[in-house]
């Protein structure tokens, strides 16, 4: 079978919608106005798709993308032989429950650079005169910050390396700060640094991290970035499960050409962005983006309602031996818990937002989680809990405690993460703890295991400041989590959920 490639585009099946199936703009004329760090599945199923719509609607060819992988070369190896083309498959269920799928070939990704192989190429791409925006989906751990405070970890070995080796950085702060130093020295225009990761105030957080790094390099560089570059906050939302070999085979059969790395997503998409750009931007409204003055209310809504409940669902589902999110949602006790968690403990911490009906938002979210066509793995969501919990759950816990309100369901979500860190589910199946702090968490669990009671064990574990900060010393929090840990260990997930009021 032939490979997806610009030369094979004219031969795609005619049943694909002609206005969406393939790029209609002259790709050879695209300039790389965007450098995207972290060119994974989410970027290719969300931001690049919105950018594709903007290119079709406006014809403004300044906004092609060069992707950067900060770790491995697998995305480059898959897509470079395809000229950067790949397929987006949007999957949901028809009214009769059968899966359905629509396909679109995305064309605005021009190349993928692999940072560890050629860091100088990445620096030069960010410092190129055509580059106007550097966008980021590097996950929480890619910021090399303390999740509890948001501060750059200057004691991090990779950050120390990047400060000592400006010609060969490894991290986002290193690449961004050193490349901006090149732009400043060459008299080039400043950039917009656009984080699209699930962090509270992700733009402000990125700004603080980059400025802290730049201050260590050169105080004048720090001042230049602070005065001229912009860091808009944003909120992104789309469920993007990991691509499987079955996905590749199914998509190839429909397209009639092989695509080495398609991406899968749900039809729902949301992107809210503060309209603060230093050097222009695409008209992303054509793809459904919304530009606002302040993104914080939308960020909080998404982090707490979507990501917080998703994490709770993943840890409880994974420990119950439920491999996919839709299978977990099919358990009545688990679905009821997620519904009540959002309605009773998360929603009351959110501000009123014009145009947002929280009851309708919650109902739609339950429907999205139950989508059987995605087959979203609970273990995929369960990764990197030490980086995710402070953003997704612990802020909500703090707000509830300050208001003197109960945290029973939120405590169960935190307890489920602690339960998950055992590394074996309730069916006896082992799972790997994929977390940048896995070693420290394992050591903390081992030390906690010598405590005389569940309460003392949990109190010691939640004293781990990189995750819990000062919350670990809050007696109400410790007592609530210890109570739920004991219930999970004695009863298991489903019985614990069934016993909840």
Provide the fold topology.
Layout lengths: L31 E6 L3 H5 L1 H12 L5 E6 L4 H6 L6 E8 L5 E8 L2 E6 L4 H8 L6 E4 L20 H8 L7 H15 L5 E4 L6 H16 L1 H10 L5 E4 L7 H11 L7 E3 L4 E5 L14 E4 L3 H24 L5 H5 L2 H15 L11 H12 L8 H4 L3 H18 L5 H13 L17 H11 L5 H8 L3 H4 L6 H17 L1 H6 L3
Parallel strand pairs: 1-2, 1-6, 2-5, 3-9, 6-7, 10-11
Antiparallel strand pairs: 3-4, 8-10
Number of helices: 21
Rg is 23 Å
Structural class category = alpha/beta
Distance between the amino and carboxyl termini: 57 Å
**Order of adjacent strands in the largest pleated sheet:** 5-2-1-6-7
Helix content: 40-55%
Largest sheet: 5 strands, parallel
Number of strands: 11
| Uncertain parts | none
Task: Describe the structure in your own words.
- Strands 5-2-1-6-7 form a five-stranded parallel β-sheet. A three-stranded mixed β-sheet has the order 4-3-9.
- It is globular.
- Helix content is 46%, strand content 12%.
- It has helices spanning 41-45, 47-58, 74-79, 119-126, 157-164, 172-186, 202-217, 219-228, 245-255, 296-319, 325-329, 332-346, 358-369, 378-381, 385-402, 408-420, 438-448, 454-461, 465-468, 475-491, 493-498, and strands at 32-37, 64-69, 86-93, 99-106, 109-114, 133-136, 192-195, 234-237, 263-265, 270-274, 289-292.
- It is of the alpha/beta class and 501 residues long.
- The N and C termini lie far apart (57 Å).
- It has 21 helices and eleven strands.
